[in-house]
Amino acid sequence: MLILGIETSCDETAAAIVDGERTILADVVLSQLDEHRPFGGIVPEIAARSHLHHIDRLVAEAMARAGIGFGDLDGVAATGGPGLIGGVIVGVMTGKALALAAGKPFLAVNHLEGHALTARLTHGIDFPYLLLLASGGHCQLLAVEGVGRYTRLGATIDDAAGEAFDKAAKMIGLGYPGGPALQRAAALGDETRFALPRPMKGKPGCDFSFSGLKNAVRLLVERLPRPLGQQDAADVAAGFQAAVAESIADRTRRAIRDFQVRWPAGRHLVVAGGVAANTRLRQSLIRLGSETGLEFLAPPLGLCTDNAAMIAWAGIERLRLGLVDGLDFAPRPRWPLDPNARKLSGAGVKA
Ligand code: KG4
Ligand code: ZN
Known about the structure:
The chain has helices at about 35, 45-65, 85-100, 110-120, 160-170, 180-185, 210-225, 230-260, 280-290, 300-305, 310-320; strands at about 1-5, 10-20, 25-30, 75-80, 105-110, 130-135, 140-145, 150-155, 270, 295. The protein is globular, with a radius of gyration of 20 Å. It is built from eleven helices and ten strands. It has a five-stranded mixed sheet, with helices on both faces. The chain has a five-stranded mixed sheet with strand order 8-7-6-9-10, sandwiched between helices. Strand 9 (about 270), helix 9 (about 280-290) and strand 10 (about 295) form a beta-alpha-beta unit. It is about 45% helix and about 20% strand. The protein folds into two domains: about 1-115 and about 305-335, Nucleotidyltransferase, domain 5; about 125-300, ATPase, nucleotide binding domain (Nucleotidyltransferase, domain 5). The structure holds 5'-O-[(R)-(carboxyoxy)(hydroxy)phosphoryl]adenosine and zinc ion.
């Protein structure tokens, strides 16, 4: 089985070809970072125009790298949401047009399902497993029970984890995107110098919150001589990173307890999303895995961050079950994986 995947829901334009044997034949990703950097964040209109400008070329490049023609495909999968709607429309329209022209099935993939199923592409693991999805737009803990079957155990009530990294980095005076810059600065810092709160630690449930921590960083930075010296910046960065890692670890520990009772066959704790690149967080999660008897799995970084291989793979999983979409599929700016999860409010709650 050969599927073309298309991803355009945020600030990466991507196309990939994946086969049913879990081989990635082509994986092309174009980041729009340089286009958004002058604005210190993603500008939706710029993102949509840029997707439109590049997507045809990227699809052609993926097809050429895989050495196949459209007639060889078994289907075309595109991210159908959630995400910035202008970009989602570009990807969905491109996917539908290609599917129609080639006479192949069209599959509208939930971007979050793409992240959620990546560990089955990279590690071939069985359901069920526990997923921590921590990216610029999302922060959730999900029991992944099967294709299209998810139970959300916790989610952020305000900012997403990556969003918190980006905002803290901005306050400390580091570049955009903040996560990688903050991690680099933190490597030279002392995480114990400043006592920052561990949001939600010890609270019931598995939800996340980062806005209080962000505020604490703002107040701390205001107290320090400005512009921040290199050591002060490094110490604030290290303190923030430790607070996020420990908060996420505490929430995940609670989710694991819940998961192990409700899905006793589960063996894996999986991470996805750009924040999964954070080595301090990974250390906490590896420790947590070994304490609780779950194996910690992290897809390679390029498959943790936004990409089209995960969309193609989710398309394969869906096509195998006959879950094909019509050409009347309407792009969805919001699209929760678990429709029964209770509603949360807040800027980071994008699904
Ligand atoms: O998954 P992703 O590439 O895009 C989406 O948001 O969907 O995640 C990007 C986010 C950004 O907020 C970025 O600052 C964060 O992931 N990030 C990191 C690190 N690398 C990327 N956060 C913490 N530590 C990192 N090393
Ligand atoms: Zn994503």
